[in-house]
Design brief:
Strand content: 5-15%
Order of helices and strands: HEHHEEHHEHHEEHH
Shape: elongated
Largest sheet: 4 strands, antiparallel
Mean pLDDT: 86
Radius of gyration: 37 Å
Strand order of the largest sheet: 2-3-5-6
Length: 427
């Protein structure tokens, strides 16, 4: 018995394409769907994911902080009363001097521009984090989709195993009724059917959980589709390992370090600007009660950088800037190692899935057909037949898991490189 088809057209829709610009129209008023493809799952996730939605608020907050960083200090209005409520000639308000002034801080060292630059770089870093988070979420929806597809395929194997056990039970019943087999064989066949029912129920629960986890990633609290549509045994080709390792350098994870570097450089320039003291200029009107006169006044002050020249903050900013290069190199080496391991596992999974699907399973199906005929004619025992049946079921399950491993490793490679490297139709 062949596996029922499960179908997402990977050659027509490479997974990496979903990470870079693939879009699909999706009606918001469709409440129930008989099936869902990976493209539709990705589209729902991009528009509804709670994790992605939170970044819109972070970006807006950073934009507001950039606006705030570019504002000048407010002017200050002051009132000063002197020489009153004293003794002698200064008793009461006879010697009162009242000063009304307006002053303004003058930021020197181009501080306002440096603050704006640092805030802009912070915004750029948040946007880079958003791009990375989007890749993480899309990779996760692909993983959950593959998990659901795998569960669906394993459920079909369990259904086939149950049908097979029931057919075998019928065949044993015929032999027992004809006194050509012991009743113990019928008991064993009944046990096999019961265990097949248990295995099928287990697969059903697993599939329900997988579908619920898939729907949860785009924020739904119930499953609004019946089946997932994919073809596990269509394995998209991958680029050469050396090309993939080189592409890591331009991945979003590594490109983020450029945003961090720009932010740290802007912070260093801001720290240097803050080493320049600000000046304060003011003007006002003074009233002298004892002379019944008034006069204008003008003030100017500037801090003297004697002790605090912001040298500690400047040095700290330098060290944080230098740290970026070290962190980037460490991240690159680690990503290379992970990518190389994933690539090797992918090659193994491809070999295993291909061998099982095209060679071992057909051979086991032919062998089982011969075993069934031989059992019906009494040339083989029940145990030999059951062993052949079990072997075919195991091979089918192993093939599904191997193909699923291939797609999972493919997702990890695409996530690490951040680029499209598969081609439609394998060309």
């Amino acid at each position: 018995m062949k596996l029922l088809p499960i179908s997402l057209r990977w050659r027509q829709l490479p997974l990496a394409a979903l990470f870079f610009g693939y879009s699909i129209a999706l009606s918001a008023d469709v409440m129930e769907m008989p099936s869902i493809t990976l493209a539709e799952a990705v589209a729902r996730t991009l528009t509804r994911s709670p994790e992605l939605e939170s970044y819109t608020y972070a970006i807006r907050a950073a934009e507001a902080e950039r606006i705030q960083a570019g504002l000048r200090p407010n002017p200050e209005l002051g009132v000063q009363f002197e020489d009153f409520a004293g003794t002698g000639n200064l008793r009461g308000a006879r010697g009162l001097e009242t000063t009304l002034s307006l002053s303004q801080v003058l930021e020197l060292g181009d501080k306002r521009q440096r603050r704006s630059d640092a805030a802009a770089m912070q915004l750029g870093l948040i946007e880079a984090d958003y791009d990375i988070k989007k890749l993480d979420v899309l990779a996760e929806v692909a993983r959950r989709f593959i998990h659901a597809v795998t569960g669906q395929a394993l459920l079909e194997v369990a259904q086939a195993a149950l049908e097979q056990a029931e057919r075998t039970q019928d065949a044993v019943q015929v032999r027992v009724s004809a006194a050509r087999a012991m009743s113990a064989e019928l008991s064993k066949a009944e046990i096999a059917v019961a265990r097949a029912h248990i295995a099928l129920e287990h697969r059903e629960h697993e599939l329900k959980s997988s579908k619920r986890r898939l729907a949860a990633i785009w924020g739904e609290d119930r499953v609004q589709f019946q089946t997932v549509v994919a073809d596990l045994f269509t394995l998209p080709p991958v680029a050469d390992i050396e090309q993939l390792l080189e592409r890591i350098r331009t991945s979003p994870d590594l490109q983020r370090f450029l945003s961090v570097q720009r932010l740290r450089a802007a912070e260093l320039e801001l720290a240097r600007a803050r080493s320049t003291p600000d000046a304060r200029i003011g003007a006002g009107l003074r009233r002298l009660e004892d002379l019944d006169d008034q006069a204008f006044m003008l003030t100017f002050s500037i801090g003297l950088p004697v002790n605090d020249r912001n040298q500690g903050n400047i040095q700290a900013a330098r060290e944080r800037l230098a740290q970026v290069e070290s962190d980037e190199h460490a991240r690159y080496i680690d990503a290379q190692s992970v990518l190389f391991s994933a690539y090797q596992e992918l090659l193994h999974a491809a070999t295993e899935a291909e061998t099982l699907h095209t060679t071992l399973i057909p051979a086991a199906e032919r062998a089982l057909a011969d075993y069934e005929k031989a059992y019906q004619t009494g040339r083989l025992s029940y145990l030999e037949l059951v062993d052949a049946q079990r072997e075919l079921i195991e091979l089918r399950s192993e093939a599904i898991l191997a193909a699923a491993d291939y797609h999972r490793y493919l997702i990890e490679i695409e996530r690490l490189t951040g680029e499209r490297f598969t081609t439609e139709g394998g060309e």
